Structure formats: structure tokens, C-alpha cells
Amino acid sequence: MKLTTLTVTQFISAPPEKVFDVWMDPKAPGSFWYGGHRVIHQPVVGGLFYVAVKHKGKIWPHFGRFLKLQRPRRAEYTWMSPATKGVESVVKVTFTPRKKGTLITLRHSGLPDDKMGRRHKDGWTWILSNLAEKFVPKS
User: Fold this and answer.
1) Which residues 6+ apart lie within 8 Å of 54 measured at CB?
2) How sure is the predictor about 132, in pLDDT bands with cuts at 50, 70 and 90?
3) d(Cα 32, Cα 43) in Å, to the nearest integer?
4) Which CATH superfamily is domain 3-31+68-134 in?
5) What average pLDDT does this structure show over 84-98?
6) Domain ranges in the chain?
7) What pLDDT does residue 21 have?
């Protein structure tokens, strides 16, 4: 099976510590883990996660284990879902300080190079946009 890697970036108007903490908190709106139908979240190296996401009337399970957690700079974990067809892919998220905020770079490697694998880019783009919205001042 041919595999692919995708990269998504997003600037967020908050310091890396705050962005990292929201990203890793399943109770924080803007986090990938937030709002899952069912969530198991053990954010330690070797810890497991499971997130069941409802989408278009179907439940999509996502699961893996944490490989590296270096607050506030990096989170890395394995990733499996029906869209990876049993392949264990790897998600690396870096939080780089920038003037007036943080640049998040999400690199997802080892995805099947097919329609479902490539659709992860749309999903991650949507998730990072939601995270950025969390930090937009309310007027």
C-alpha cells in the first residue's frame, strides 16, 4: 500500500503554552478531543486515546498512543481510524512561538495514499481552524 504525508499549518493569536494546553484538554472547546461521542484520554507518553466522532450519522473511532509530549512545543501520537485501514500512522504537532502568537504545524505521516487518507487534510484544517477560533477575542 502506498502511503502519504500531509502537513497543515495555522497561526493562533495566543502563546504556545495556552495553545498546547487547549489542544491537549478534552474538556476545552477547540481541542480535537472535545465533543467526541466517547473519549478516553491518557496524555502521558505511552498513554492511550480513543475518540468516537459522530459524522453524517456514523460513528468514526480514532485511537492511538502518545509517543512524545513536550509542553509547550510538541505532541506526537500514533493514529488509527477506519480511514487508515488498520495502518498505524503518526501525527506530530509542533507549537512554534511567533510574534503575537503561535504557529501550529501538524504533520500526519503514514496515511494511505487514497481518497480517505488524503481527506485527513480537510479534517485537520477544520480542526485547527476551530482551535484558532477559540482564541479570537469576543466583542
Assistant:
1) 37, 60
2) very high
3) 13
4) START domain (3.30.530.20)
5) 95
6) 3-31+68-134
7) 97
Strands 58-70, 74-79: pairing is: antiparallel
Q: Are 74 and 95 in contact (CB under 8 A)?
A: yes
Distance of CA 115 to CAs 45, 111, 119, Å? 31, 10, 6
Question: How is residue 33 annotated by DSSP?
Answer: T
Global pTM reads 0.93
- Residue 124 to residue 111: CA distance in whole angstroms: 13
Amino acid in position 10: Q
Summarize pLDDT for 42-59 with one digit per residue, the tens: 999 999 999 998 888 899
At which residue does the C-alpha cell 510574534 appear?
99
